[in-house]
Amino acid sequence: MSGTRRRTTSEHPGEQANRSPPDTPDSTKAPSNPNSNPLFGHRPTIMVLSALGAVLGAIAIRTYISPASHGALAWSASDVPSQAQVINQKAFNVLGNVPPATQANGSSQSHAHFDRRDFWRPLFHEAVVWYPPTDEVFFVQNAGAPAAGTGLNKSGIIEKIALSQADAVKTQSNATGQVDVVTVNSTPQIINPNGGTNYNGKIVFTAEGAGNNTPPALYVMDPTDPYNTTVILNNYYGRQFNSLNDVAVNSRNKELYFTDVTYGYLQDFRPLPGLPNQVYRFNEYTGAVTVVADGFNLVNGITFSPDGSIAYVTDTGINQGFFGYNYSYPSAIYSYDVQDDGTWDNRKIFAFVSVGVPDGIHCDSAGNVYSGVGDGVHVWNPSGKLLGKIYLGTTSANFQFAGQGRMVICAETQLYYVTLGATGAAITDYDFSTGY
Ligand SMILES: *[C@@H]1O[C@H](CO)[C@@H](O)[C@H](O)[C@H]1NC(C)=O
Ligand SMILES: *[C@@H]1O[C@H](CO)[C@@H](O)[C@H](O)[C@H]1NC(C)=O
Ligand SMILES: *[C@@H]1O[C@H](CO)[C@@H](O)[C@H](O)[C@H]1NC(C)=O
Ligand SMILES: *[C@@H]1O[C@H](CO)[C@@H](O)[C@H](O)[C@H]1NC(C)=O
Ligand SMILES: *[C@@H]1O[C@H](CO)[C@@H](O)[C@H](O)[C@H]1NC(C)=O
């Protein structure tokens, strides 16, 4: 989605005041099998690439977590990285002071304080796509936020970095200016791209459109210069979509599934919505477009389990755009069973997010679910239990795995390069030119 951000606001009594390891092992703090926790699996380091300046500069990297490797089935103090923050979830169960929603407002309860007013500019927003042939990561600016300078007359742009550059500075805590953020001049220009994924050797973007006369569309872009782009879908039987948000390819049927939400209207750059918040499915070869799910408040991110059998969809209803925040609405991830014929069944709530809203969502190769939320990226096991956080202290709208043990996280004014003990779900790259 566009325009979501949050600053951390207060201390939480349940968290440790520092990032020291616990003195004693505590089974209430640990997952039953630590090897299943990608955040503590093996020797990850998490860095921050932080953009504080112009589009083509300014990236900082900061190390967050460097866990020691281990093979034991129980945690001990030495398993916990010195920088990691271990949270005793039981300590949150009963609190002395529980503020009402208008005061708590879904903000992160944390000791970390940030003030970004001096350098707020949403350069690093969504549509994060790793392109293996060049080992580059593409992403887009925030189209909705006023500070992005987009809106009816302009468009959020696509940018990219080379991971070789990020990797070369990964031991630094702040590598501002050492990684080039390169503008990708898609031709013709993609108007307000927001979501993206690998598709048929190229990248498919969901674009939100602008005004009355630039309808939202699916664009396919060649990831190499001159970045030729082609519109492959821009309507539902003659009706404009509202503002396409995110897209994923199902690994079983290779089809595109994408979300359409009313944020373009709620952020003032699209007219009144003409369709419900829905998830669509598109087969480029046959041209068939169908609706697979509705009933959302504000549908947003979408992904599949590695085997394609489960769909995960986020609903960011709490953030009502220019209507403000309403904490009685969803901040949720729903799961569906993907049937053999590609339709969806068995909607379940998978997780409710307590900090901000769940926006972009991706699975690792083990089926753990990651989503960008109000204080970084949260990680759940396939049963919806929170395994941990890649804690940034600021909102991440989206992020992407970049192969084995690497991740790039967009956090609006910061770009983070992360190494961790997990690998992204395999990319489904399929040539549709000959059908199935
Ligand atoms: C949340 O509460 C904090 C502290 O009262 C306030 O500064 C912030 O503006 C609020 N955010 C929203 C979105 O209401
Ligand atoms: C777009 O440009 C026109 C002409 O310059 C201007 O009148 C209008 O206010 C602009 N709209 C936005 C949303 O910036
Ligand atoms: C990172 O480095 C840049 C450039 O040297 C500097 O402007 C910025 O304040 C640094 N950020 C942090 C968090 O230290
Ligand atoms: C890109 O588009 C231009 C203009 O249509 C065309 O001449 C060129 O061959 C295309 N390049 C690629 C790599 O497809
Ligand atoms: C939140 O939504 C509920 C249900 O639609 C509504 O009754 C309430 O007035 C809304 N609250 C705010 C603050 O908008």
Features:
436 residues, mainly beta, 3 helices, 3% helix, 31% strand, disordered N terminus, transmembrane, SMP-30/Gluconolactonase/LRE-like region domain-containing protein, transmembrane helix, Oryzine_lactonohydrolase, SGL
| The CATH H-level homologous superfamily | TolB, C-terminal domain
Alpha carbon gap, first and last residue: 32 Å
Bound molecules: 2-acetamido-2-deoxy-beta-D-glucopyranose
Secondary-structure element sequence? Answer: EHEEEHEEEEEEEHEEEEEEEEEEEEE
Task: Note the overall shape.
Answer: globular
Mean pLDDT: 78
Number of domains: 1
Supply the number of helical segments: 3
CATH hierarchy class name:
Mainly Beta
User: Percent of residues in helical segments?
Assistant: under 10%
CATH topology: Neuraminidase
Q: Report strand %.
A: 25-35%
Could you characterize what this model shows?
Residues 17-38 have a biased composition (Polar residues). The protein contains 3 helices and 24 strands. By secondary structure, it is mostly beta strands. It has a 4-stranded antiparallel β-sheet with strand order 1-24-23-22, with no helix packed on it. Strands 2-3-4-5 form a 4-stranded antiparallel β-sheet. It has helices at residues 101-104, 163-168, 263-266, and strands at 45-46, 126-131, 136-140, 158-162, 182-184, 193-199, 202-207, 217-221, 229-233, 244-249, 256-260, 278-282, 289-293, 299-304, 310-315, 332-338, 344-352, 361-363, 369-373, 376-380, 386-391, 398-401, 404-411, 414-423. Strand 23 (404-411) and strand 24 form a beta hairpin. Residues 1-35, 41-75 and 110-120 have low confidence and may be disordered. It has one domain (34-91, 106-434): TolB, C-terminal domain (Neuraminidase, 6 Propeller), CATH 2.120.10.30. One 2-acetamido-2-deoxy-beta-D-glucopyranose (NAG) binds at residues 326, 328.
